[in-house]
Amino acid sequence: MTNLIIYLAAAVLGGGVAGYFGRIYVAKLQKDRFAAKQKEILLEAKDEALKIKEEAKKEEERLRRDLTELEKNLRRREEMIDRRLEGVETEKEKIVQREKEINFIKEEIVKVKIREEETLEKIASIKRDEAREMLLRSVEKEYKDDLIKKIKEQKEIAREEAQNIAREILSTVIQRLASEHTTESTTSAVNLPSDEMKGRIIGREGRNIQAFEKETGTDLIIDDTPDTVVVSAFDPIRRNIAKVALEKLIADGRIHPTRIEEVVKKAKEEIGQQIKEAGEQAAYEVGVAGLNPDLVKILGRLKFRTSYGQNVLQHSIESAYIGGMLANELGADVNLVKKAALLHDIGKAVDHDIPGAHHHISGDIAKKYGLSDDIIHAIMAHHDDIEAKSVEAIIVKASDAISSSRPGARRETLENYVKRLEELENIANSFPGVEKSYAIQAGREVRILVKPEDIDDLEAIKLSKNIAKKIEDDLQYPGTIKVNVIRETRAIEFAK
Fold first, then answer.
1. Which of 68, 257, 275, 417 has the most CB atoms around it within 10 Å of its CB?
2. What is the distance between the alpha carbons of residues 50 and 33, in angstroms, rounded to a whole number?
3. Are residues 286 and 149 part of one domain?
4. Which domain holds residue 170?
5. Residue 293 domain-assigned?
6. DSSP string of 56-104, one letter each residue
7. CATH code at position 437
8. What is the mean pLDDT of each successive set of 10 residues along the chain, which is 496 residues long?
9. Bridge-based pairing state of the strands 434-440 and 482-486
10. Partners of residue 189 on adjacent β-strands
11. Which of 246, 130, 104, 147 is nearest to 187 (CA)?
């Protein structure tokens, strides 16, 4: 210890060899201390590592126990499921066996029933269908009055309910529809200021009339009718172009081939502008937006088209009004109905150039210009050859019928009118037991007198239904036709 103190003092106080060895000794002491400290730290680390290892082993053992328990539970569940599956398969086999037994019993019951029916037929000497017919006739005969009364009551109740609902809807629609247009027909007669104008229209050696007919695609009929020239053409557009051009030529007074060509060209432009404006105005009035401009032009061509004296464009506008209000009352798609009703007769604008029924042409045009399938179906289904499969299609069909069958909307030729009445009477007369039939009220009703000894009250009800069905199948007509079967019995005696 003394030496250590001496060395330390020497290292601190002096130099030389003693100081040198003192410093070495101090460094050695520090090294020994560091080594001891390092060992201590290592021992502490080893203790900590052992603790962590022990805890990890304990956690591992706990997890192993949990996994073992989970595996046992899964095995138990698997065994339960297997047992249940075995039970299900057993039950399934039992059900299949029972089903076979039930089917066998059913077959046996059918066989027994057939044997019983055959035995009954042999005993009664009458077939099953004949017995059923006899039973029905017996019941019908016994309860005829009750059946007639019940049928009439049910028909009357159904008729009253239907009439009330229809009357309510249609009265609302009619109240909201203000139809201000009158029936309009295209005329082809042009008035002349004097008969001298006929010669100027014909021209030298007929060159003026030939040039006019060539440019317009029409025929000019110049006969003995005073102060009148008739324009004849199958196409109403060409006929109106010719009419406008001829009126301009007559007003101008200069009639020669070159002038005719200029005036016809201007008339075509004028009619084309009228067509465009008519289509746009119709779409605007109804409230249908977004139509293709070319489709609007085709719609405008209907301004110069008539059907039974009714202007087709005005009929289309009116149908759209009525259809929209009906759709609103019934909760249907108003926009779809309006658009379909406005375009339902658009095929009539081009049916002179395209073969086929006009409603099929209308559907093809709508498809060409990208309208939806629902609109196309509603357009094409407004005639009976295509079944209406949506409420909107039925409304379009009804609005077309209402517009075309209202009083004053259309007129028929005398020949078609008489023919329709004759067909009505012929259909009624074709049924047995009919004595006379009369088509009255312009074909809106057919009144049928039957032979009372051949037709009773129940048969009269059946007869009216059968005649109405045959009229629906065989005739085409607007609106409805009332079938009125009259059975009258008179007892006459003379007092002498």
1. 275
2. 26
3. no
4. 145-175
5. yes
6. HHHHHHHHHHHHHHHHHHHHHHHHHHHHHHHHHHHHHHHHHHHHHHHHH
7. 3.30.300.20
8. 51 55 76 84 87 88 89 89 87 89 90 81 71 70 67 76 71 57 52 81 85 85 77 80 88 86 90 89 86 88 78 88 87 90 87 76 89 90 83 88 66 62 87 87 82 85 89 77 84 74
9. unpaired
10. 230
11. 246
Nearest Cα to Cα of residue 462 among 160, 13, 1, 151: 151
Distance (Å, rounded) from C-alpha 342 to C-alpha 328? 16
Cα 226 off chain centre by: 55
Total count of residues recorded for the chain: 496
Which pair of tokens denotes residue 161?
């309910």
Query: 261: how many CB neighbours lie within 10 A of its CB?
Result: 14
Domain count within the chain: 4
Residue 274 and residue 255: Cα distance in Å, rounded? 25
Closest CA to 207 of 261, 256, 262: 256
Do 185 and 159 reside in the same domain of the chain? Answer: no
Cα–Cα separations (whole angstroms), residue 463 to 18, 481, 485: 152, 15, 8
Q: Residue 313 corresponds to which tokens in the numbers above? A: 């464009």
Residue 142 backbone phi and psi in degrees, to 5: -70, -40
- Quick one: tokens of 201? 């229209």
Per-residue DSSP letters for 120-166? HHHHHTS-HHHHHHHHHHHHHHHTHHHHHHHHHHHHHHHHHHHHHHH
> Of the candidates 402, 385, 394, 339, which has an alpha carbon nearest to the alpha carbon of residue 365?
339
- CA dist., res. 337 & res. 377, Å (int): 11
What are the strands of the beta sheet with 219-221, ordered from one edge?
Answer: 189-191, 228-232, 219-221
Residues paired with 483 in a beta bridge: 446
Look at residue 202 and tell me if it is in a domain. yes
21 falls within a domain: no
Residue 406 sits in the same domain as residue 418: no
Per-residue model confidence (pLDDT) at position 183:
38
Based on the domain organization, do 306 and 196 belong to the same domain? yes
Q: Are 219 and 170 in the same domain?
A: no
CATH code assigned at 381: 1.10.3210
Residues 475 and 359 in one domain: no
Q: Indicate if 98 and 222 belong to the same structural domain.
A: no
- Looking at the structure, tell me whether residues 250 and 263 fall in a common domain: yes
CA dihedral sign, ordered 88, 94, 99, 102: negative
Contact 446, 440 (CB under 8 A): yes
The 10 Å Cβ neighbour count of residue 214 is 13
Tell me whether residue 18 is in a domain. Answer: no
Instruction: Count the Cβ atoms, other than its own, within 10 Å of residue 138.
Output: 10
